[in-house]
Amino acid sequence: MPENIKAHSIVVEKIAYIIARGNIDAGFNISIEKVIAGSLMHDIGKSLCLNAKADHAAKGKEICIQNKLFEIADIVGEHIKLKNYQPEGAVVDSEIVYYADKRVNHDKVVSLDERLEYLLMRYANNKEFIGRLIKENFQECREVEKKLFARLNFRPEDLAEMIR
């Protein structure tokens, strides 16, 4: 795994840990171990997909399954797009990692707007269909953000300062 992807994953883990810890304290049944492992491994398939038009989340899930890391395979597989998001359901591990990844650009904590702007520039590149999919995914991410922070005693804007 390239150093830049490692650095990104470490910051994603820090953000995910803070959110998971807060939601555990608020009474949700979150596995801190799965959140940590899923965060650190979420981009495990990325370097294999850099020059291919492959889904690195699906590749990462496959790598987890091949290595018998069944407990985090779905978390890794859903870090780009949640499969069965339940807005009214309990907070779950995969939502935390999904959201944390959206808050980290390279190795810096950014707002959802900043991350969206970067992803549109990097991946949509004047491709209207791809841009629309990214925007729709970020609309769901904003809903996830509300859910994740509903019972927390800190705000999304506080995360960058909290990991220092």
Q: Which tags fit this structure?
A:
mainly alpha, Hypothetical protein af1432, two-stranded antiparallel ribbon, 164 residues, 2 strands
Structure description:
The chain is built from 9 helices and 2 strands, in the order H-H-H-H-H-H-E-E-H-H-H. With 164 residues, the protein is mainly alpha-helical. The chain has a single domain (3-162), classed as Hypothetical protein af1432. A two-stranded antiparallel ribbon has the order 1-2. A hairpin with a 2-residue loop joins strand 1 (104-105) and strand 2. Helix 7 (112-124) packs antiparallel against helix 8 (128-149). It starts with a helix and ends with a helix.
What's the short story on this structure?
The protein has 164 residues and is an all-alpha fold. 64% of the residues lie in helices and 2% in strands. Strands 1-2 form a two-stranded antiparallel sheet.
Mean pLDDT: 96
Rough shape? Answer: globular
Highest CATH level, the class = Mainly Alpha
Give me the CATH fold name.
Hypothetical protein af1432
What structural class results from the helix and strand content?
mainly alpha
Structurally, the number of domains stands at 1
Question: What percent strand?
Answer: under 5%
Number of strands: 2
What's the CATH architecture name? Orthogonal Bundle
Strand order of the largest sheet: 1-2
Order of helices and strands: HHHHHHEEHHH
Calculate Rg over CA atoms: 15 Å
The number of helical segments is: 9
Distance between the first and last residues' Cα: 25 Å
Q: Uncertain spans, ≥5 residues at pLDDT below 50?
A: none
What share of the residues lie within helices?
55-70%
Largest β sheet strand count, sense and barrel closure: 2 strands, antiparallel
